[in-house]
Amino acid sequence: MTDRADTISRRQLGALVFVGLLSPIVRRIPGQLVTTSGRACWVSVIFSAAALMLLTLLFAALRKRAGMLSTEDLITGALGSFGGRVVLGFTGLWLLFYSAFHLCAGADRFIATVFPNTKPIFFTSVMLVMCLIAALGENRALGRAAMIFRPVVLLVFALVFAFALPDVDKSELMPPFENGVLPAFRGVATLLNIFAMAVYFSFLEGSTDSVFSVKGFLPWLLTYIIILLLLCVCVLGMLGLELTQNLAHPFFVIIRELTLLNAIERIEAVVIGLWVFPDFILISVLLKTAAKLLARALGLREPAAAGQKFFCMRGSRWLVWLCSGLTFGGTLAIGSSSFRLMNLSERLIPYLNCAFAVILLPLCFCIWYVRSRPTAK
Amino acid sequence: MKRVAYIIIVYLLLSGLLCGCSLSGSIYENYREVEQLRLVEVMGIDSHNGGTVLSVAVGPGVGQSAAPILMHAAGSSISAAVSTLQDYSSSEDLFYSHTQYLVFGAEASQTQLEHYLDYVNRSPSLRTGISMYVVRNGTAQALIEGTGGESYDLSSVLASLERDAEKRGEVCIFSALDVIRALTRSGAALVPALDIRDMSSLSSESEGEGKTAIPAGYCIINGGSADGYIIGKPAAVVGMLLNRADELPIELPDGEGGETTVTLTGSKCEIKPVWENGQPLRFDISFDLKAAIVELEDPLSLTGSGTPELLAGRLEETVCAWAKQVLEQSRELGADFLALGVKAQADQPKRFAALEGGWQQQFGSVEFSITASAEVERSYDLTEPAHTEGGQSA
Lengths: 377, 394
Known about the structure:
The complex is a heterodimer.
Chain A: H1 10-28, H2 31-37, H3 41-66, H4 71-113, H5 120-136, H6 139-164, H7 182-195, H8 198-201, H9 214-246, H10 250-257, E1 259-260, E2 264-265, H11 268-274, H12 276-297, H13 318-334, H14 338-347, H15 349-371
Antiparallel strand pairs in A: 1-2
Chain B: H1 2-19, E1 37-48, E2 51-58, E3 69-75, H2 78-88, E4 93-95, E5 101-104, H3 106-111, H4 113-122, E6 131-135, H5 140-146, H6 154-168, H7 176-186, E7 188-198, E8 211-222, E9 225-230, H8 236-241, E10 249-253, E11 259-274, E12 282-296, H9 307-333, H10 340-347, H11 349-353, H12 358-362, E13 367-378, H13 390-393
Parallel strand pairs in B: 1-4, 1-5, 5-6, 6-7, 12-13
Antiparallel strand pairs in B: 1-2, 2-3, 7-8, 8-9, 10-11, 11-12
């Protein structure tokens, strides 16, 4: 039931994953990473490289056997039609809640840093409308957008790191192992929980033009590790351990402190404005995927995108509108309190994300992998 | 055509959401016309009867007259004082986002500094990277309102001070972020102190031109409030201890009642914790100094091949004495403003964690071993003093 007319290239999917993951990464790193691993957060990033490499190899083995099968097919293949539909249905609902959470988090970032005393509904509404338009469109349109956003975001990172590194106080990074090596490994778990979100993008695998290859993915994984490492070093080195722990948006605070060539300061609004790109990509993909999973769970056709008019409701496209409505309801339920958002971010979202992205979906993949083992004739 | 119509509808929808119109709490409330902005350059905070007095030096706005505006307002909190100031500033908006200097009065630094730093840290409009000062002998209001003239204000004075005094290492400038970071990690920090001086005391031509700010060492912040000052000549050693001194002039006694001035051309300080079983923690502090002769009060008294070595010895003695005074003050107050604990922790994390009673308790009993190695390298172009009495002796 995958819409074969709505394909996406492997490079575009790679760009989607790269840009989309930046949204939770900048929200949670290094703040949450510092909470679990303290001054060893930058060491955790280095340690996590090996774990991420291993997971990439495992995923490559899975996709090699799956060929052009979609991830939904793998799950129904692993759990059977009914079990698979239940898992897909719950995953779809979770993705809607997760989209709502990300909309609220994006709005909170604007309010806390650039537009104080503003109501979040302005930001969540505008972003949701933009994401709805993208979710109703073709995969390749989103992929092209991600291909454009990726160099822009990389350039911003490069400039921020270039101007921030001279201000880094090295003594704030040392000693990394004041409480032993264990915190560094706990940090790896936090990082893996964030990177596991890439699983949600794997629901686009069925629409790609080629099979996942480790060779094409490795340079971007390495780029990510370097970004994370510099992010931890710059933020921790400029703000210190305690401030990094206590700030909700430490990365944007260091941008507020930057002065470019003694001529330009207060550039944080521009950079924070740019961060709507990762939010846009992530929420659009989550909305699109949620609609697709719910359609599969309900036994409907996947919402068609290729060649469809915007307001056309045929071919289960009404589900995308419904999903957007549910997401908007989710944002209203979460509310405007940043304390509640922080509470969700620390106590509920990581565990739900872990349950779906680290346990449930990979478990389904493992079951499918074992069941699909070629039998000797 | 339908596609164009859809695009127009979507744009109208988005712009309708973004403009905010007159809805309360919309992002439009944050919009300001640049011509209406008055940029606050210096922000002064004083405590008075449990409340706060906020003083500001406001620079000219776009297309406005060049005369700086000095204002102050009292309130039960900083926010209340900010609101009152805004009420007084007629049609223009006071804009705090580009504030460059943060000045605390002596009383404010002793009573509510922690509260004020929390405000700065929390505020989305203020940067924490702004330079921070404490007025040693008065209020921030007196300094802001007394300093300057028709075309300049305290911000010009402080800009000049930062360019000049920091370059020499006479004063190390710390930002609010530096102070907050030092307080959260070491529990103590240094803030450059300023004295208010009458311009008339410096020059007879300046009579009636008001006041100015001059560097007056450092205010020691301990546990969130001012706990003392490092004043006088020993304050100069702080820059050397932090490896931030350069071109610092130092006056040395020449042994005959006169003074010789050398200027540092290079200064390195190494602080090394020494852990010995059964002994209190010791810090070996060694200075490596390079200097040049600038001024000899009695040129003929210091001639000959031994002069550089003699002056180097005096420089070593002077710097060691200053360092000893500053370090002992730090230990007596229990204020680790030089972050010695951080160095000890980085050196031996496990032994540091196992310190009996914790670092704060141990800091009172640490020992210092201070050594200096100085070299007077040059006397610029003059190899020997000129014999001005040559005609008489001949």
